[in-house]
Write a structure and sequence with these properties.
The protein has four helices and two strands. The protein has about 80 residues and is mainly α. It has a single domain, classed as Orthogonal Bundle (Arc Repressor Mutant, subunit A). It has a two-stranded antiparallel ribbon. A hairpin with a 2-residue loop joins strand 1 and strand 2. Helix 2 packs across helix 4. The protein starts with a strand and ends in an 8-residue tail after the last helix.
Length: about 80
Amino acid sequence: MSFFQNKIIYFNSDINPEFDKGIFTLREPNNLKILELILEEPGNYLKLLENKSGIKLGDIRKIIEILLELNLINEPL
């Protein structure tokens, strides 16, 4: 059992618990779409991500915060 984004989530005990939050996060289509766009073209800025994904800018910011927290992406130096 893990707590994430004010939710209690349960996972198969065979899965490494270090991956719980990442698996939970990437099940959301918008989160996965933003991660894919960033990985395909590193250096995208927020407005470009909004145009390519069709996701609202505020939601993209929240998704990026989550991806940063999980170390799936890095902030520019």
